[in-house]
Every structure is written in C-alpha cells, then in structure tokens.
C-alpha cells in the first residue's frame, strides 16, 4: 500500500506531479485558454463583487492560504486576509456584505475551521471550501467549493495536500483575474502554460533527493533551524519549519527574511542551520544580502535556489536547485526540497514519520 516507499509521507511527496495534474485536469484547458470550475462559475458574481476575501484554515492549510494571499492580490487584485480559524471564530470578526470566505482543509473535518465556517455563514458571508476529502463535513457545510483531487493523504505531515491546495487557489485567482479584466489574454495564457509545466518541474526538483539526504545527514543533530523566505516564499519558509518540527521534533522557526534583523539574527552562530529560499525572482538581491549577514555570523546556509544560480552557491554551505518558473508558482517548487529535508532528518533520527507523537491526521477537537 505504500507503493514500494518506506513511508506514506515519501510516497505522497513523490505523488505530487501526478496529484497536481489531477487537480487541474478538466479544469484548465491550456489550448483553449479556459479555466472551468463549476463552484466558481456558478457563483462568479459573488467573487467578482467581493471587496475582500477572507481565508480561514489551520496548520499547513493556513500556509497554503498565505501563499494564496500573495497570488490573489498580485494576479486578481482582490484584497485578502488570512486567518487562523481558531482565532477568527472567537474574535467576533467583522464580516461585510460582499465578503467571500474561503475555507481550506485537507481532511474537511477540522473542528476550528468548521466553527469558523458556521460563524461566517451566520454573518451572511458566501463560504467557499477547498477540501481534499470528498463528502467531508466542511465540503458539505460550505455553499460551494472545489476539491483538490490529491487522492488520500495518509501521512500526518501534509505534503501533496499543500501543493494541490495552492494549485486550486491559483486556478481560482487566474479565473477571477480574467473575469475582472485584471490580466490580459497573453499573460493569462502564459500563466496556464507555466502551471502546466509545474508537474514536470516538480519531477526535476525531486531528482535532488540524494543530495538532500547528504544535507540531512550533515544537520540532523542541530537543535534549532531557521527558515527564511520573502514574498510568495515567506509562507513556504513557515511550512518548511512546520514540517521539520512535527516529524523530527527539532525546533524550527520560519521568518520573513527581512525580519531577521529585528530579532532572530541574535540566534545565529555556527550551530544554526538557516534554510534560505533564494530563487532568482522578486527580492533575490535582498535575500542574497540577508545570506551575507548570516554568513558573517557563521550561520550555516542551505540555499534553495534556481537552477544555475552562482551567487548563493558561492556563499552557502549547500545549495539545492529547483527549476525556474514564474514567481507566483515558485512555492510549488521550493516546497519540495523542504519536504524531503524534513523527511530524511526524521528518518535518520528514527522518528515515526507517518504518525508523529501527539498529532492526529484530522483535528476534530478544538
Ligand atoms: O485537514 P486540515 O487541512 O484542515 O488540517 C489542518 C492542520 O491540522 C494540518 O495541516 C496540520 O498542520 C498538518 N499536520 C501539517 O502537516
């Protein structure tokens, strides 16, 4: 049942190229330049009239929501707020007419997310679900939705659910951008073509597995890890840190790279591995100068870089390459090495990768 893999987590990491194809199959028609999603099409005015989108979720799904915030704002120019469902539900949140709430949940059973949905509905919001498990409670409680179609995710650490959630949310953002006239046809087409290339590029990123094992071996005994990223890749830094924490029990923190100087830089010494997402996009130069600051304090640098990168390679202890893509889709690639890194460290430390202590696959209590 693990398909020849040692753990479900590894199997699910390797399933991502196919899972993403399953997510966009029948929805994204690249040649025709169309995205069809019944749940969105049937409610298109609610989305295009939305003054704001509020995303509610927990854990990794919340991180997918943060990536979506960058994508929606960049491509569709709709303001987005991303809330922990557990905070939202107890805060007497302000929900205005025309707000659209998107709830993201792999299991579709998370108690806090469910409560947030009920509250949003009571306040009159239109609630859209992004779930993986078909027929789950959340998929039934929401007004409309889109499944991720990632297939069953058994490992407690979420992997393919995350990348397929980002895929669904990217499709929605592109669809809304088109409907609102925020993107021209050529650019829209270009995005579809690039998204279509992502599964192949993930396969390429997975080829770094043996090299990532070496990195894991080198740093498996560290007591702490720092993960840094900016822009679209800031949430990926948070996700990388969560993956490491939950399966290896090593303390890890994710930070926006530029926030380092406001505190966490004090932690850096020769014992601190710092994973820096530094793809050749957006804030590359700024991230490179953050890397210099880490290096001058003797921090150990693991750079997640675009293929062919030279600058980070000259400074880092290790670099792990991912293929190039448009900035909005880089999280789909940069996440891959972080999943593998945490997986190998947990295996080397003899931890129970698929069933980490104290954790359950679906958190049905608050
Ligand atoms: O099923 P959900 O997506 O609602 O679950 C949310 C979180 O409990 C979940 O993502 C959790 O953080 C994972 N263990 C992360 O790997």
UniProtKB/TrEMBL annotation:
<keyword id="KW-0032">Aminotransferase</keyword>
<comment type="subunit">
    <text>Homodimer.</text>
</comment>
<feature type="domain" description="SIS">
    <location>
        <begin position="215"/>
        <end position="356"/>
    </location>
</feature>
<keyword id="KW-0963">Cytoplasm</keyword>
<dbReference type="GO" id="GO:0005829">
    <property type="term" value="C:cytosol"/>
</dbReference>
<feature type="domain" description="SIS">
    <location>
        <begin position="43"/>
        <end position="182"/>
    </location>
</feature>
<dbReference type="GO" id="GO:0006487">
    <property type="term" value="P:protein N-linked glycosylation"/>
</dbReference>
<dbReference type="GO" id="GO:0097367">
    <property type="term" value="F:carbohydrate derivative binding"/>
</dbReference>
<dbReference type="GO" id="GO:0005975">
    <property type="term" value="P:carbohydrate metabolic process"/>
</dbReference>
<dbReference type="GO" id="GO:0006047">
    <property type="term" value="P:UDP-N-acetylglucosamine metabolic process"/>
</dbReference>
<protein>
    <recommendedName>
        <fullName>Glutamine--fructose-6-phosphate aminotransferase [isomerizing]</fullName>
        <ecNumber>2.6.1.16</ecNumber>
    </recommendedName>
</protein>
<keyword id="KW-0677">Repeat</keyword>
<keyword id="KW-0315">Glutamine amidotransferase</keyword>
<keyword id="KW-0808">Transferase</keyword>
<comment type="function">
    <text>Catalyzes the first step in hexosamine metabolism, converting fructose-6P into glucosamine-6P using glutamine as a nitrogen source.</text>
</comment>
<feature type="active site" description="For Fru-6P isomerization activity">
    <location>
        <position position="361"/>
    </location>
</feature>
<dbReference type="GO" id="GO:0004360">
    <property type="term" value="F:glutamine-fructose-6-phosphate transaminase (isomerizing) activity"/>
</dbReference>
<dbReference type="GO" id="GO:0006002">
    <property type="term" value="P:fructose 6-phosphate metabolic process"/>
</dbReference>
């Amino acid at each position: 049942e693990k398909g020849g893999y040692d753990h479900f987590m590894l199997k699910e990491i390797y399933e991502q190229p196919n899972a993403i194809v399953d997510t966009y199959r029948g929805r994204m028609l690249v040649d025709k330049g169309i995205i069809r999603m019944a749940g969105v099409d049937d409610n298109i005015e609610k989305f295009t009239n939305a003054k704001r989108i509020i995303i509610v979720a927990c854990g990794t799904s919340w991180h997918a929501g943060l990536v979506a915030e960058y994508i929606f704002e960049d491509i569709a120019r709709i303001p987005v707020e991303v809330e922990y469902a557990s905070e939202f539900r107890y805060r007497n949140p302000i929900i205005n007419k025309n707000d659209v709430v998107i709830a993201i949940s792999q299991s579709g059973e998370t108690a806090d997310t469910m409560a947030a949905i009920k509250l949003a509905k009571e306040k009159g919001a239109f609630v859209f679900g992004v779930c993986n498990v078909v027929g789950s409670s959340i998929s039934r409680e929401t007004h409309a939705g889109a499944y991720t179609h990632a297939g069953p995710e058994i490992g407690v650490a979420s992997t393919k659910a995350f990348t397929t959630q980002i895929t669904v949310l990217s499709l929605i953002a592109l669809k809304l951008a088109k409907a609102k006239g925020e993107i021209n046809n050529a650019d829209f087409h270009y995005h579809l073509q690039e998204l279509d290339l992502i599964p192949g590029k993930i396969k390429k990123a997975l080829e770094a597995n043996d090299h990532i094992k070496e990195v894991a071996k080198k740093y498996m005994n560290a007591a702490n890890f720092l993960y840094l990223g900016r822009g679209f890749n800031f949430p990926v830094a948070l996700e990388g840190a969560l993956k490491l924490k939950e399966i290896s029990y090593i303390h890890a923190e994710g930070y926006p790279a530029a926030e380092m100087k406001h505190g966490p830089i004090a932690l850096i010494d020769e014992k601190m591995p710092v994973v820096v997402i530094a793809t050749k996009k957006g804030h590359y130069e700024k991230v490179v100068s953050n890397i210099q600051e880490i290096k001058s304090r003797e921090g150990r640098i693991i750079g997640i870089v675009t293929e062919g990168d030279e600058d980070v390679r000259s400074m880092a202890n290790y670099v792990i390459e991912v293929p190039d893509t448009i900035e909005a889709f880089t999280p789909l690639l940069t996440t891959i090495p972080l999943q593998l890194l945490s997986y190998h460290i947990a295996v080397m430390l003899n931890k129970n990768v698929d069933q980490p202590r104290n954790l359950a696959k679906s958190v049905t209590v608050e």
